[in-house]
Design brief:
The complex is a heterodimer of chains A (about 120) and B (about 400). With about 120 residues, chain A is α+β, with helices and mostly antiparallel strands. Helices cover about 45% and strands about 20% of the residues of chain A. Chain A starts with a helix and ends with a helix. The chains are: A alpha+beta (about 120), B alpha/beta (about 400). The interface between A and B is medium-sized, with 26 and 23 residues. The structure holds pyridoxal-5'-phosphate and FE2/S2 (inorganic) cluster.
Amino acid sequence: MYSEKVMDHFSNPRNVGEVNDADGSGTVGNAACGDIMKLTIKVEDNKITDVKFKTFGCGAAIATSSMVTELVKGKDLNDAEAISNATVAEALDGLPPVKMHCSNLAADALHAAIEDYKKKTVK
Amino acid sequence: MKKICFDHNATTPVADEVFEAMLPFLKGEWGNPSSIHWAGRGPKKAVDAGREALCKFFNCADIETIFTSSGTESNNLAIKGLAWAKKDKGNHIITTRVEHPSVLNTCKALAKEGFETTYLDVDADGLIDLNSLEAAITPKTILISTMFANNETGVLFPIKEIGAIAKKRGVTFHADAVQAAGKTPLDVQGLKVDLLTISGHKLYAPKGIGALFVRRGVRLTPLIHGGHHERNRRGGTENVAGIVALGKAVEIAGRDMAAESERMLAMRTRIEKGMQARIPHVKINGHLEKRLPNTVNISFEFVEGESLLLNLDMKGIAASSGSACTSGSLEPSHVLTSMGLSNEMSHGSVRFSLGKSNTEEDVDYLLEIMPAIVERMRSMSPLYAASK
Ligand SMILES: Cc1ncc(COP(=O)(O)O)c(C=O)c1O
Ligand code: FES
């Protein structure tokens, strides 16, 4: 039921773990099924230089987590903020309809981490 | 890669002997069993023989059996049929929270017609309290419907004791024995059940054939009106090949059950002990003894079940999970949450259900690969890190 890309990211997830001395961190729970994702970022010159995730969730949740880290690494904060759950799902060649909500987890965690960074840096 | 099925509670393959027995009725013996001419005679004889085998399996008389299309239909016929037939006597049904959807949703549907259902709670072991059952019976109670064995955990309800209470209080008793059939003896006389459901595809017959035992004297209003088939209780030309298959399957089940159960139990015990010895933070769900010999449901804390199933599938192993993420409805298993498991523990549950194809080597392989899978998923889990 999953695309090859989803299975690839699920079997070999990129950027698993937690960034040391993270500049921003976002933990979100999925209201639909109760799954959890934590995303940590390192920011330099308004660019995301490092990003890692930890996820408690289904195959789609893990694959979207992995994909979102790939999408944002090296990106401007503004560009990263523009990434939505649809962007992530598309990058994975789509998700089964019942699994679309899983991609919210990745997008929400990303936005929460950026938000957290901004809060910390606004002095 | 070798393919291993540890998901026999979902369905089973058609046994070779069953396949051979039913084949002539798909090709060759094509007649209608109701016909009096030459084409109908073979199929008629085959339907009679299938029924005879079923009667032997249940220990009942031929007029006490109805062939149906599935376990789901049998459950619907038992519950709706009895409720409709007895609606002048009362409108109250007692069942449990951990039933199969074919029972729960049937009771729910009857609520729209004014029937009321009490759903008995289960304890942490997945068992009901017999005192609560007795206390729930009112003068309006017409039916008690409980499963024999739970499909998710394998937990066995005390059918004999429930039957004794039902008999004492004059209430009809239906048991959903879909998972029990072929794994534990089903003598309807010893058990004092009035109605009992089985399904072919859970015991090595094909999908689409089921049966219902109906004790003599218990009246049911039919769901399917039609001809005189099944003594006017279920219309429709008989599924001859399916009936032959079910007859053969229950004959084999009766013959092999004792030895197979022992073999299953040995493998199940090794899986349980092996998982507990090799992997920290695991919990066996359901009463440790009062359980089907073939079913083990294990929660792997801090990880999600679907991701475990995908990993197992990549290694050739088929299993299932009570995780919200695998359910389609995004609700965790109603069976596990009724037993008081947290959402997280339900999330991490995996059911391994053994069957004829399984060998000790399959168990070795499972125990060999499972620790690394769980460890890999835990290393990705924010819950695991937080717990340390
Ligand atoms: C306990 C129980 N009852 C009823 C059913 C329904 O049987 P069928 O698939 O034949 O409709 C199942 C099958 O999943 C079951 O496990
Ligand atoms: S995260 Fe639970 S279904 Fe995908």
